[in-house]
Input
Amino acid sequence: MAVWLVLAVLVGAILVIEYTDRRAKSGAVEADARMLLPVPVDQLGAIDVADAGRLHRFERDAQGGWFYHGVHTGAESRHTHVADPALAARIEGAFAAFGRTRIERQFALDGDGAAYGVATPEILVLVYRPNQAQPLAQYAVGHVAPDTASRYVMRVGSRVVTTIPNYQIENLLALTRAANSSSTVR
Output
C-alpha cells in the first residue's frame, strides 16, 4: 500500500510540474505589473520610436533578428529595409535593456499632463506584436523629472503617469541616431 501511495504522489508531482511548464511556455503567466512593457521583448515584432516628428521603425526579420526599417517623415520617403549584422546586435541589446524597464513611481494624472510633458510629447514609443498593424501599447514620453534620473511616461489612453529611469529613453534615442547614421552611410 505504501508503494502505491508513493507512486501516486510522484505521478501527481510530475503532472503539476508539466502543467506549470506548459503555462509558462504558452505565455499564460501573468505579466509583472512593475514592468513598463506589457509583454517580454521576445514577444514583440516591431518597435517604433518617434522623436520630434521623425519615425524610426525597428522590426524583426523572419529569423527573429532585429533590423532598422528606416526613417519615415513626410519630406523623406527614402528608407532602408536591409539588415545590418552589426546594427542588429546593437538593436537587440538596446531592446533587451528596454524590455527590463521597471516602473519607479505611479500617480494619477491631474489635468492634461502638460506639467509632465505627456500632453504633447516630443517622443512616442509604440510596441507591436509580430504581424500586427495596431500597436500593443503606445507610450508618451514626457519631461525629465526634477531628480534628473527619471523621466515621466504615460501609456496612451491611461490616466496614470509613471516614472522610469531616464537612461532607458536616452538609450533608445542613441539607438535611433546610430541606426539612422548607419543607414545613410550605405
Q: What stands out?
A: The beta strands are 46-51, 54-60, 66-72, 105-108, 123-128, 137-144, 150-155, 160-165. Residues 41-185 form one domain. Residues 2-26 form the longest helix (25 residues). Confidence is low (pLDDT under 50) at residues 75-80.
